[in-house]
Amino acid sequence: AISFSYGESQGGGGETHQVAEGDVAVLTTQQGIPVSDDQNSLKQGARGPTLLEDFHFREKIFHFDHERIPERVVHARGYGAHGYFELTDSLSDVTRADIFQRVGERTPAFVRFSTVAGSKGSFDLARDVRGFAVKVYTQEGNWDLVGNNIPVFFIQDAIKFPDLVHSAKPEPDRNFPQAQTAHDNFWDFISLTPESFHMIMWTMSDRAIPRSYRTMEGFGVHTFRLLDADGKSTFVKFHWKPKQGLQSVVWNEAVKINGADPDFHRRDLWDAINGGDFPEWELGVQLFDDAFADSFDFDILDATKIIPEELVPIRVVGRLVLDRVVDNFFAETEQVAFCTQNVPPGIDFSNDPLLQGRNFSYLDTQIKRLGGPNFTHIPINAPKCPMAHFQQDGHMAMRNPIGRVNYEPNSWGATQGGPREDPVRGAIAFAETAEGPKQRVRSDSFADHYSQARQFFISQTPIEQKHIGDALVFELSKVERPDIRSRTVSHLLNIDARLAATVADGLGLALPDPAVAARPTITDLPASDKLS
Ligand code: HEM
């Protein structure tokens, strides 16, 4: 045992030494070597050069030099908390997934909320989509529902994701603007991508400036499948409904909050949970079959479309409660890795081309971001159920196979041979038939880009509609190129004539020729027909 006295003394340079005593831990290196002096490096003589021999100094500085890891390429700024998912209505009629069987059972969960476009150090109240990523540590492996606070997305096909993100991030020569949608590149891409306009209506609405993470809805966005024990499939859309209600701020407030407290959302979540005011969401599902999918006006594989709740009502099946802040931001919130492909048996994918692309993207980016293939060994990412596999080695390997065998099939028998596959309990993909020529062209069923944008706009109250118009005028007023402004407004003509007129007026533009947009429907408008 090493005993130090705890007290303060002055060193030769006037620095304070706080030394260990009683229960106070002894400062050590990463190798556990006790440290005698943490204020002074080892020198040759009082004024001589620092010595390479000082292993404590070298380790401390080298470790510091490596503290940063790449920030997420999107959703870099986020905030996480622990909680649980509790089933309130069994889904055993449609899925074999263990998590959906027993009413009242609680399963641990971790949630990370985020903005999308801003860097890790950006402000919370940007006009932006919010990520709503949920990891549920089920008894059959981790289920990640990597969603947003908006039920649709900008693009239909994952191959467009790098272009979308490049256009939204700071422009490559000047590296601004940071964390906001108001700039030429973003609106250039949007105005050349008509499928984005439904999402644009949502992002220009109050939904994109939430009052709190606690007052946002969450959506899985894509159509997924639920599979029962016989392999029968039911399509599903996932929804999180906040018990706190849905609340946003107005732009004027958002700008002030960003200036006064850029950490507004993370502070709000931290304070609420630490104060015992645990935020809660209901999990709702929209369930439908092939017959509905075939009869629906839009393609259920198209992530730019919703399925109206009037057509397929939401069935509430559970609740998510966040009741514990993290112990360490970096270890948990920063290192957590969500991935759409993490689904337990009984939950499966649809052929949505955005979802299919996401299933590739997340694992790849996380192998880089978290330094290799073993990031599931980090406690926040590790499943909380039994695990056994033959994957081994790589940087930071902490769960290598035990014993002599690291392959299968093998002849080492039940006790030494390691894990075996299980055709009954194992995940089985839905036996979907796929046919047709290989092709890149999208289905015609993905073609209508404006009808649901219009439905969303007209579903808003007059003041909410005005906010959308104001947001478009503000954002587009930051766009320098007149052709990009006009092209954007020409798309609005296909959504709502008053909205287009209001935005054109706000920008001092003549109403553009609707032929500029992909599918013009309105040719003339009375100038007085404005949003009020
Ligand atoms: C990160 C949602 C589309 C690639 C995230 C996060 C969320 C999210 C919530 C943050 C996860 C966290 O908190 O750690 C969505 C939604 C999408 C979508 C709802 C569309 C419906 C895409 C697409 C791609 C993509 C199409 C690529 C093809 C990424 C990447 C990250 C990310 C690379 C960073 C992951 C990491 O570093 O851990 N996404 N995303 N996303 N997303 Fe998406």
UniProtKB/TrEMBL annotation:
The active site is at H75, N148. Its EC number is 1.11.1.6. One of its GO terms (cellular component) is cytosol. Coiled coil: none annotated. GO terms for biological process: hydrogen peroxide catabolic process; response to oxidative stress. Residues 28-416 form the Catalase core domain. One of its GO terms (molecular function) is heme binding. This is Catalase.
